[in-house]
Amino acid sequence: MTTQMHTERAGSESALSVLQNVYGYQAFRADQAAIIDTLVAGEDALVLMPTGGGKSLCYQIPSLVRRGFGVVISPLIALMQDQVDALRALDLDAVFINSSLSAAEIRDTEARLRRAEVDMLYVAPERLLMPQMLALLDECADAGNLALFAIDEAHCVSQWGHDFRKEYMGLSVLADRFAEVPRVALTATADERTREEIAENLCLTDAARFVAGFDRPNIRYTIGEPDNAREAMLAFLDQHHRDQAGIVYCMSRRKVEQTADWLVRQGRKALAYHAGLDAATREEHQRRFLREDGVIVVATIAFGMGIDKPDVRFVCHLNLPKSVEAYYQETGRAGRDGGPADAWMAYGLQDVINLRSMMAQSDADEQHKRVEHQKLESMLGLAELTTCRRQALLHYFGESLESPCANCDNCLDPPDTWDATTEAQKALSCVWRTGQRFGVNYLVDVLRGSSSERILRFGHDELAVYGLGQARSANEWRHLYRQLIAKGLLAVDVDGHGSVVLTEQARPVLKGQQVLQLRHLRKGGSSRSGGSRRSRAPVSNEDMPLFESLRALRKRLSEAAGVPAYVVFNDATLADMVALKPDDVEQMRQVSGVGQAKLDRYGEEFLAEIRYHTGLS
Ligand code: ADP
Ligand code: ZN
Questions:
Q1: Nearest partner of 477 among 495, 459, 450, 458, judged by Cα
Q2: Cα 336 to ligand 2 centre (Å)
């Protein structure tokens, strides 16, 4: 917006009217109002809120309400352009300074900052800490034109976490150097330890703390162990996410490449992303994911932090993540806009073996290894669970959810259990009889009575357990072994060969002193559970044609403007439009996400499209 409007509003408009007029939202969510009040009053804040909770407004609105401009510190240079575009679509004046600008552009932007003509400045920490930048900000602060500092992705200051960036440590200088300017640190990372490190390292121990609940009710959790994970995923995507954007995580680069190629051959728009690709390719793939409709990125964990795309409809895991924290963070990238989203995972025995031996072979010290080991166990526990996944997930983060969520696979389609005692005894005694020196595939061969050369050579065809398990498929036996490993009755010998050994816990089962209830094999998100799932489309079937044509209109407009589709309107806004079917400008203003600027810019075109459809029906 223009300088003049900016100064006018700074004095008069309240935070709520900015929310309504600029952003087009009716009310603040949860802690947003309190956080904004704290910053507007000139005080510091530490904000922990899940992805999609609405962190950005917490610093954007105070930047607008307070005098001068807000400085937003973010590690993600590649995303700054999109963040700034999204604000410009609201007629806000946002700028960034980074290495993608020419020297002349930087000089020009600096001059505009000196004149306090802008609403928000985005910079990476290394840029902010350059002497020239700090000197410029000193000047602005002296003139009373620094509204606030917002430190986004604040967990990057934590040495414990996996996103540590050493430049973040330097941000502690802001406390002294700009003592009068309020600071807010924001993160979606949940755990206590990281939280304390952020407060400590950013000199925010006295800051007001806002810790939101970590539930993401719109995300549906599904975890399965299908025979063929790729095929099961495709079936699931065909059923629930035909042309929608999503992320597929794999453990290795090779698997990323193979899966992306395979998806392309199945007619999907899929792109690979991992640290082995050159920077230009990575950037291009990220750009297409943000800009184009319905792109699937297949990635290692290198992809995702700070991806602001609100309409990621699914996150799939084709491998078991290392910890519940990682699982929560990665799945959390789905459904930022609050619309229905899926977190779907397929895993198998090999994942457990790989992760365990990776950990055993790492150079980390013993204490670190123990922690990692526990984390993997917790993740495995979540995967093998037969009760509500959300309750378990929240419990892990120290929260409680009273009743089962009705939006996870175990709630929607409770798993059957069976008395597996006898079968487990066969499996365990096969381990014992063969000398605890073999991997699961070999053990299964013995149980099923294979006459492989190896078995004959070891004389294992003469064991009592040989051929005892012919009634079950190899896959059922592998599944049983995995559950025995997950439950701790068997341990994987971490010599790298994956042989399994009995643990103390196997004894009572082997001796028949304990009954073992296990879960039936679940084929994953498709097949069995497919039919019973209720539909979760953002709009009703009869409104689908209208929704689709609004999406098409959005696509044309965003392409013409060279911005991501969600910068025009996000899916939640389109769904609200379809629900309300506004007939004139005033009604259009009632739609959530339609503020003044977007009303002026796009209102008429969307109204025309809606009228055309309602006239038809
Ligand atoms: P975060 O940074 O916490 O992941 P965002 O700030 O990107 O979340 O917000 C997620 C989505 O929710 C965005 O599309 C945003 O516009 C929307 N949003 C935020 N606050 C509100 C609100 N009070 N009412 C409606 N929508 C909101
Ligand atoms: Zn549940």
A1: 450
A2: 20
Whether 570 lines ligand 1, by a CB cut-off of 6 Å, is yes
CA proximity to 217, closest of 413, 411, 28: 411
In a domain, 149, yes or no: yes
Considering the domain architecture, whether residues 66 and 159 belong to the same structural domain is answered as yes
pTM for this structure?
Answer: 0.79
Between the CA of 167 and the centroid of ligand 2 the distance, in Å, is 40
The CATH number of residue 13's host domain is 3.40.50.300
| pLDDT tens digits for range 560-571 | 988 888 999 998
Residue 375 has pLDDT above 80, yes or no: yes
Domain membership flag for residue 531: no
Q: Per-residue pLDDT tens for 284-306?
A: 999 899 888 899 999 998 787 66
DSSP H or E stretch at residue 350: helix 349-361
In this prediction, residue 13 has a pLDDT band, given cuts at 50, 70 and 90, of: low
Beta strands at 94-96 and 246-249: parallel, antiparallel or unpaired = unpaired
Mutation test of ligand 1: which of 16, 29, 83 has the most ligand atoms closer than 8 Å to its C-beta?
A: 29
Residues with CB under 5 A from ligand 2 (ion): 388, 390, 404-405, 408, 411
Residue 304 shares a structural domain with residue 398: yes
Tell me the HSE value of 199 on the side-chain side, using a 13 A CA sphere: 17
> Residues 141, 182: contact at Cβ < 8 Å?
no
- What is the arithmetic mean of pLDDT over 491-497? 68
State the closest ligand 1 atom to the C-alpha of 29, by its place in the atom list counted from 1: 23
Q: Is 434 touching ligand 1 by the criterion CB < 6 Å? A: no
Last residue of a domain, one of 389, 412, 435: 412
Q: Residue 211 corresponds to which amino acid?
A: V
Does the C-beta of 70 come closer than 6 Å to ligand 1? no
Domain region containing 144: 3-211
